[in-house]
Amino acid sequence: MSSHLQITHLRKRFGGLVAVKDVSFDVADGEVVGLLGPNGSGKTTVLNMISGALLPTAGEITLRGVRISRLRPDRIARHGVARTFQLVRPLPSLTVAENVLVSLAFGRFKHWGPDARDLAEEKLAFVGLGGRGGENVANLTYIDQKRMELARALASEPALLLLDEWLAGLTPSELQIGIDLVRRLQGAGMSVLLVEHIMDAVRALCARCVVMNAGEIIAHGPTETVLKDPGVVAAYLGD
Ligand code: ADP
């Protein structure tokens, strides 16, 4: 299968600290890959280099064969990369639909006007917020804020979604809703790189995982095999 996202020998140095060292992996079309590792292992730095928020010190990132590393974040978004953040970042004075409209207006396709309203409703329906576009963001429950954040990310019709602990903080029943939503993304043909600490979610969603520790990949492969790897277990226990 032609590789959707290909990361090759990626490296990031912050002053004296090499936060990401020689990281290579790929995410195939329609695949959900877990990016795991203890805090500080370099996962968010990798996401930031994919989205263009950070410039790699060395290495390459390609999407469907097109080199995206060293492009500006808006150019990378135009190639079909979108991300969510660890903390939900809504625009609180706007309604649910207006939040999505802002993403549509400033996103990859610059949608304005009545068409944009229909598109916003379509994205909201996809995440389970159909008919709720007029609500005040401040009144949304946490899972609904997460849904809205996802709808905003979907505004750019991404081919690749970077989910940075998007499932964190959900109750067990909300977690199931979140997992089902990620499955819907995959069902709609999107590839997902999932940074996640909730192992039940990783097991449910990812056939394959990459595990980092101290900036390096210490294991990659089928999720069950990787999670039993003694080096991975030791890294999580703080060895
Ligand atoms: P993770 O997402 O796995 O928790 P990060 O990618 O956030 O890890 O961080 C990896 C390492 O890089 C950490 O030691 C962190 O302190 C450091 N780091 C991350 N961002 C910066 C930055 N902008 N400047 C300096 N150091 C950073």
TrEMBL record:
The keyword Hydrolase does not apply. Transmembrane segments: none annotated. InterPro entries: AAA+_ATPase, ABC_AA/LPS_Transport, ABC_transporter-like_ATP-bd, BCA_ABC_TP_C, P-loop_NTPase. Keywords: ATP-binding, Nucleotide-binding, Transport. Pfam families: ABC_tran, BCA_ABC_TP_C. Residues 5-239 form the ABC transporter domain. It comes from the Bacteria. GO terms for molecular function: ATP binding; ATP hydrolysis activity. GO terms for cellular component: plasma membrane. The keyword Hydrolase does not apply. This is ABC transporter ATP-binding protein. It comes from Rhodophyticola porphyridii. The lineage of its organism: Bacteria, Pseudomonadati, Pseudomonadota, Alphaproteobacteria, Rhodobacterales.
